[in-house]
Design brief:
It is built from no helices and 20 strands.
Length: 268
C-alpha cells in the first residue's frame, strides 16, 4: 500500500500502475463535496467508528452499488483504482493512501498514527461497471480517535509554503463556484525547480479541504507530462465550490522522493 502523506516531510515514492483513467487537467468537479457517505446509489460502508490514537491502524471499508452488493470493479484513475484520504476536523494530519482490495470487495487502508480527535475518511473512485460506470465519486465517513483532542489553529492564508527545502507559490484570484486559472510554482533556494518527476501521471497532485465542514476538492495540473523535467510552473483550472478558507495539500516528486506542501488559501 502507498502512503502518500505527511505535509512538509518526505516519503519514498512507491511503484505505480499505468494510468488508463483521467488525464491531467481534469478538476473532477462533478464528484460533489465528498461529505456524504452515499451518492447515486453508491455507498461507503464500514463498521469502524473509532480508531486508536497514537499508533498505526487499519481502516476497512466497502463500496456498495445500487444493488446493495459490494463493488469490485473500479476504473484506474491516475494510476490507482482507489484514492483514500484522512484528515482531522482541524485540517491537520493529512494522509493520502492507495489501499488494497480483497476478493470480497473489502478495502484496507493502513493509516499512520492518528492524533486524538474527529477524523473524516474519504474514498475517491470511479466504478468500472454498473449504472455508475465512469462516474467520479467521493464518499466519506467519520471516525473518532480517543484522547485529549486539542484543536490546532488553521494557519493564516498565504500564497506560499515550504516543504523539505522547496518553496511552493500559488498565484490566482479564486471565486467560489467558478472556474479560474491558477498557477503553482516550485522553487528551491530561490531558483526555479525544473526536475519534477511524474507522480500519479501528473507533475503534482492537489487536494483541498474547506475549513469548518471539511468539504473536499481535487485538482490536477493541466501541464503536459514530459519525462522528469517538469516545473517550475504548473497550470491548474481551479474550482472551489465554497467561499472561506481552504487548506491545500500539494504533492510533488523529485529525485524519487515525494514531498507534501500545505498552505491555506482564502476564496472569496
Amino acid at each position: 500500500m502507498d502512503h502518500d502523506s505527511k505535509p512538509s516531510a518526505s516519503a519514498s515514492a512507491a511503484g505505480e500502475d499505468r494510468d488508463h483513467g483521467s488525464m491531467p487537467g481534469m478538476d473532477h468537479g462533478g464528484m460533489g463535496d465528498g461529505l456524504a457517505d452515499a451518492k447515486d446509489g453508491y455507498e461507503l460502508t464500514s463498521t469502524t467508528t473509532a480508531l486508536p490514537a497514537g499508533e498505526k491502524a487499519a481502516y476497512r471499508f466497502r463500496i456498495t452499488g445500487p444493488d446493495g452488493k459490494p463493488v469490485t470493479r473500479f476504473a484506474v484513475d491516475q494510476t490507482k483504482r482507489m484514492h483514500f484520504y484522512a484528515i482531522r476536523s482541524d485540517l491537520t494530519g493529512f494522509q493520502h493512501l492507495h489501499p488494497a482490495m480483497g476478493d470480497d470487495g473489502t478495502w484496507t487502508a493502513d493509516l499512520a498514527a492518528l492524533k486524538p480527535g474527529k477524523w473524516r475518511m474519504y474514498a475517491s473512485f470511479i466504478p468500472d461497471d454498473g449504472p455508475g460506470k465512469g462516474e467520479d465519486l467521493v464518499l466519506s465517513r467519520t471516525v473518532t480517535a480517543p484522547g485529549d483532542a486539542r484543536r490546532t489553529p488553521l494557519p493564516a492564508a498565504a500564497t506560499s509554503a515550504d516543504a523539505d527545502g522547496y518553496t511552493v507559490t500559488v498565484k490566482g484570484d479564486l471565486t467560489a463556484g467558478t472556474t479560474h486559472p491558477m498557477t503553482v510554482g516550485v522553487s528551491k533556494g530561490g531558483k526555479p525547480v525544473t526536475d519534477l518527476q511524474p507522480y500519479l501521471d501528473t507533475y503534482a497532485h492537489l487536494t483541498a479541504f474547506h475549513e469548518g465542514d471539511q468539504a473536499f476538492a481535487h485538482l490536477h495540473p493541466r501541464t503536459e507530462v514530459k519525462g522528469d523535467r517538469g516545473g517550475p510552473d504548473l497550470a491548474f483550472r481551479a474550482m472551489l465550490p465554497k467561499s472561506g478558507n481552504w487548506r491545500l495539500f500539494l504533492q510533488f516528486r523529485t529525485g524519487g522522493t515525494l514531498h507534501t506542501a500545505a498552505l491555506t488559501l482564502r476564496v472569496g
